[in-house]
């Protein structure tokens, strides 16, 4: 029996070794083999490229700009011309040569920075894709970027601005758009001075930092990373974090917040709203103006509740983990639930 098990084990190890070497051979073939340079792994068929391509399109009949980007950094700019300009430039060493492509489909302009279709493409260097639009353009822009930074720091006034980044940081400023949707799979999102009817920010892995944002409806979600926002005026705000802290300063508006793991800190500059806060694991701190009036319903399974407002208590547990009452009138509602963590309600 032992000999049979030994032979079986040897057979399994042999097959595993053969499969491993076969996979390595396939990868080496795709990359072009080894190139010995200080023992570095480099494709033999790579070349040096200097890229400088421009394509211009009249903006008169364009109502949507769609950018399909592989890896160059994207810069959104504005000028006073009547053309939409795409400029791909930079130096790189690679086993493929990227190209700039544009096409018009009705009122839609498609801009692509195409790369190799091989599963294994290698490159080093830096490429930029500048998209310059007329200051009079006020329609839709949608960007889908696989890898690379996205920067839009020039004033934009649009009907829709939609951005999805798979891997790369995002920096936005001075954007006014009826629909504003920003999603990032991996990378930070930073925004300043934005105005939108409906705004949405979502990050799978990375921090979200916003300042000076006005919106009727604001949705923010982070799976792994902090949410840090300052000077926000939104009629209705939804904040969700799976793992990470939420910090909000100078806030105005109704808020519905849920956190699985992380601290929550929200400070209002003006208060005449409804608040619903929930945390599975982490403390909740809510700061309100001294003249705030509200009905409070707060509970925590494991932790203490502290409210420094002159509250008329309707219900309070002996353990101090449940507090229901009213401060002034009950026109505004505050509901706080914490599974594990302390709750603190204080004045600014």
From TrEMBL:
Membrane-spanning ranges: 12-34
UniProt keyword annotation of Transmembrane helix present: yes
Pfam families, per the entry: DUF4097 (PF13349)
Record's keyword terms, sorted: Membrane, Transmembrane, Transmembrane helix
Source species, domain of life: Bacteria
Stretches assigned to the DUF4097 domain: 179-345
Record carries keyword Glycoprotein: no
Protein's name in the database: DUF4097 family beta strand repeat protein
Organism: Clostridium thailandense
């Amino acid at each position: 029996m032992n000999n049979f098990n030994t032979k079986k084990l040897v057979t399994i190890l042999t097959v595993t070794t053969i499969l491993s070497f076969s996979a390595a051979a396939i990868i080496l073939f795709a990359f072009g083999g080894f190139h010995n340079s200080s023992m570095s792994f480099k494709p033999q068929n790579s070349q040096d490229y200097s890229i400088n391509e421009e394509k211009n399109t009249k903006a008169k009949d364009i109502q949507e700009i769609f950018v399909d980007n592989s890896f160059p950094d994207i810069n959104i700019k504005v000028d006073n011309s009547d053309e939409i300009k795409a400029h791909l430039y930079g130096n790189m060493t690679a086993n493929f040569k990227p190209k700039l492509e544009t096409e018009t489909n009705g009122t839609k302009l498609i801009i692509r920075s195409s790369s190799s279709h091989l599963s294994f493409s290698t490159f080093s260097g830096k490429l930029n894709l500048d998209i310059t639009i007329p200051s009079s353009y006020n329609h839709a822009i949608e960007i889908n970027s696989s890898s690379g930074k996205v920067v839009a720091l020039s004033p934009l006034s649009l009907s829709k601005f939609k951005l999805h980044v798979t891997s790369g940081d995002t920096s936005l400023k001075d954007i006014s758009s009826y629909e504003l949707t920003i999603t990032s799979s991996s990378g930070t999102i930073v925004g300043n001075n934005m105005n939108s009817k409906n705004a949405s920010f979502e990050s799978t892995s990375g921090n979200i930092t916003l300042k000076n944002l006005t919106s009727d409806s604001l949705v923010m979600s982070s799976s792994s990373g902090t949410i840090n926002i300052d000077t926000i005026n939104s009629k209705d705000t939804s904040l969700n974090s799976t793992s990470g802290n939420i910090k909000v300063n100078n806030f105005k508006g109704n808020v519905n917040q849920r956190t699985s793991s992380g601290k929550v800190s929200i400070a209002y500059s003006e208060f005449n709203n409804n608040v619903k806060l929930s945390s599975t694991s982490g403390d909740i701190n809510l700061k309100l103006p001294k003249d705030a009036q509200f009905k409070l319903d707060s509970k925590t399974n494991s932790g203490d509740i502290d409210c420094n407002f002159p509250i008329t208590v309707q219900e309070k547990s002996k353990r101090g983990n449940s507090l229901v009452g009213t401060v002034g009138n009950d026109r505004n509602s505050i509901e706080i639930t914490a599974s594990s963590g302390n709750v603190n309600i204080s004045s600014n």
